[in-house]
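This week, work through this protein record:
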Amino acid sequence: MLLKNTLFFCNLSHEEYFKLFNLFIQIGNQYLKLIYSPLALETRNWTALNQEDRFILLVNQAEQEKAKGNNRQAIKILRTALNTYPKLNKGIELLTKDLQALTETRTKEFEHYSRLLKEKIENLINNDELAMATSLLEEATKVIGEDSDIVSMKAVIVLKQGEFIKAEKLLQKALIKDPQNFDLLYNLACSFEGQQKVGKAIHYYQKASQVCPNQNLKTAIEEHISGLQNGFPGKKDTSSVK
């Protein structure tokens, strides 16, 4: 009771409040384990519990999810805890901020890892080490998912292998989700050109040119379009990898 009243009524710094709040949860959790059966707590049969007790168990449950790395689920549980017992909203706010900061850090680490992995695959493709690139792409897809970069790199590999129709199908599907992606548009144009579908190739080269992030490349694409329109395609790289 003294600890709870201190949280309610004393003017504490964030650090002091956070320490006392965590202590309150720890003591409360130990107390609940003494007076309730383990089965009731594990099955979350909490109908007999008051709001404060349910709050303590929810915060403890959130901590368990955090330990598993399920930070988003932990935040969701903390919101439920807040609705259950709003009087300790400051503690929930501090816990949520801590989780959000941890999530942001892990997201940045994941993005950095993804970028390095993609760069490795791109280098392999550019060096025509297609078997190794394909193997790494399979692993990357499991970890990162099949985003536009991954699809584009898969398409470049099959373009280099002369499988233009397969590349077209991959790229058309990806463009439904990401219709303004330069690499997808450019590589789709390459796939149509490989099939000698010049009209469609020109159409997608034009769309790629409109969203091209590099002025020199944009100029090269426009020159290639002119060559196709005049029946004289110039020499160019047959695919785009970032």
User: Anything to note?
Assistant: The two ends are 61 Å apart (CA to CA).
